[in-house]
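Study this fold:
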Amino acid sequence: MALTQIPLIIDRVHFEASQDFELNLGGKQLLLKLRFNVRSNTWQLGIYDIDGNPIHAGIRIVSNYKLSKRISDERFPEGALWAINIAGNAEPTYDTLGSDIILIYDDGN
């Protein structure tokens, strides 16, 4: 089993509560989009193919939860994407994603 931590760089100083980045997971090139929803006080994740076509969008980031649980698209690799709270059991907030809450990809091998 190989685990990969997804690098998150969120500019909280300028309230840039979003991040778009490309990465390779399980041999598939993907685009991830993170957005903070002020109204619901939650982080949302969108997963897209490299051309920007949605694989699955609007995934609420919840602590210790398999974010890829409902993805059955062949463009997403066979592994699993998790949000892991390394500091306890609290849900992700604007300030904790990327520090207390990390994203991990488990290739399943």
User: Anything to note?
Assistant: The chain has a mean pLDDT of 90. The chain has one domain: 3-106.
